[in-house]
Amino acid sequence: MNPYQNKKRWKYLLLFFAVIIATSSLWYTDFLVQGISKSERTRAEVWSQSLKKLFETDNDEMMNYLFTVKDSLVVPAIVTNDKDSITVYTALDTTKTYYKIEKDKVYDPSYFQRQLRIMKSQHEAIVIEMNGKKNYVYYKDSNLLSQLRVFPYIQLSVIAVFLLIAYTTFNSSRRAEQNQVWVGLAKETAHQLGTPISSLMAWVELLKDKFNAEQDPLIIQMENDVKRLEIVADRFSKIGSMPILTSHSVYETIKDFVDYFSVRVSDKIEFTVTGDEQQEALINIPLFDWVIENILKNAVNAIDGSGKISVNIIENLAKEQIFVDITDTGKGIPRSKFEAVFQPGFTTRKRGWGLGLSLTKRIVENYHKGQIFVKDSEIGKGTTFRIIIKSSLNYVPTPK
After folding, report:
1. Residue 253 CB neighbours (<10 A)
2. CA torsion angle 258 264 269 273 (round to 10)
3. Tens digit of pLDDT for each residue in 112-147?
4. Does 350 or 382 have the greater pLDDT score?
5. Nearest Cα to 126, choosing from 137, 115, 142, 140?
6. Which terms are listed as keywords in the entry (predicted)?
7. What gap in Å lies between CA 369 and CA 55, rounded to an integer?
8. What is the 3-state secondary structure (H, E, C) of the chain?
9. 20, 226, 238, 356 — which has fewest CB within 10 A?
């Protein structure tokens, strides 16, 4: 399993456990809420019966007992008659009243009507008979029960925000650390390549002089490979620092690399480069060559036997952009993998590292301020990658 798939599995596994924890928390809270709700219903029923008995008894001791039971209810409740008029209420706002006779309080019938509507929406009425007439007792959830209902959602939200901040901070710190390691490794690689490349250049010059082989095809190709190594070392030295972008012909840059690359792969693969040869863009040639190289290598690996790879350069005058479409006749990419192919560690090859397209995306987007994506792909027919870079149509060089 490659690192990308392993990372993806861990994400799904952690998401699964997060869902289990959240579901368990909500289920247990709901269990507690149901228990408290039943308890409050019982207390409301006891209060209703005590109220009924108060109207039926003349015994002073019994009345004192019933008043104690009635006053013990902390759940807000309202009693209405068969005409839906409020007759009794308890545990509501003590500064307000439903009756005009209580002069020391605010007369606010609308407040009680609002509370009655809330109570009706929350619980079914408890029916009691007083003086031969039916009365209806409505009650609403206590503050404790109301808070308990929303508490798990607040708790889970706070935990989610905390985990998100912690994950973002940790991820940024880890990424910065990884970047430092990669930058250090890249620069050290460039430094280590410097000595053998210089030696190889000297040996090539000695071979030319000794055998008078200035135009020998083998020596020329050897010299091209040494120059290529020099470019590779230069690429590594540029990692971690912002490269200088200058105006260059996109067609010539790509054509030069394709000419070099095509003779080093199977002759069963045909390469073509088309488009306006005059269009220029702001690029850094060593790094842009690296982009083209990575995509072409992927295209070659996708072709089983013979095939074609074409590069088409298109200008978008309206947005001052240049499109570079690289199309192969390889095995294609599933639509579900269009984004995944740019993830570090994603590869379909047994011995692949899965870093080529990830690095390509970084060079295009971070260094050239452009875009790269899979424009189109069909299984068994091929794939088209599109690179978008800035045109240098209105480019004015910075004076030195």
Report:
1. 19
2. 10
3. 999 999 999 999 999 998 878 899 999 998 888 888
4. 382
5. 137
6. ATP-binding, Kinase, Membrane, Nucleotide-binding, Phosphoprotein, Transferase, Transmembrane, Transmembrane helix, Two-component regulatory system
7. 84
8. CCHHHHHHHHHHHHHHHHHHHHHHHHHHHHHHHHHHHHHHHHHHHHHHHHHHHHHHCCCHHHHHHHHHHHHCCCCCEEEECCCCCEEEEECCCCCEECCCCCCCCEECHHHHHHHHHHHHHHCCCEEEEECCEEEEEEECCCHHHHHHHHHHHHHHHHHHHHHHHHHHHHHHHHHHHHHHHHHHHHHHHHHHHHHHHHHHHHHHHHHHHHHCCCCCHHHHHHHHHHHHHHHHHHHHHHCCCCCCCEEEEHHHHHHHHHHHHHCCCCCCEEEEEEECCCCEEEECHHHHHHHHHHHHHHHHHHCCCCEEEEEEEEEECCCCEEEEEEEECCCCCCHHHCCHHHCCCCCCCCCCCCCHHHHHHHHHHHHCCCEEEEEEEECCCEEEEEEEEEECCCCCCCCC
9. 20
For residue 99 the two structure tokens come to: 């009756």
Q: Quick check: 116 and 102 in contact, CB under 8 A?
A: no
Q: Could you give phi then psi for residue 314, rounded to 5 degrees? A: -125, 140
Task: Give the closest residue to 86 by CA, choosing from 45, 129, 136.
Answer: 136
One-letter identity of residue 307: G
Amino acid at 302: A
- In 3D, which of 218, 219, 197 has the Cα closest to residue 208? 219
Residue type for position 72:
S
Q: Give me 45's structure tokens.
A: 């029923």
Q: Is 227 exposed, middle or buried (0-12, 13-18, 19+ CB in 10 A)?
A: middle
Model pLDDT for residues 222-279, shown as the tens digit of each residue: 888 888 888 888 877 877 777 888 999 999 999 999 998 998 899 899 999 999 888 8
Q: From 288, 343, 286, select the one nearest 313 (Cα to Cα).
A: 288
* Nearest C-alpha neighbor of 359 from the set 183, 168, 169: 183
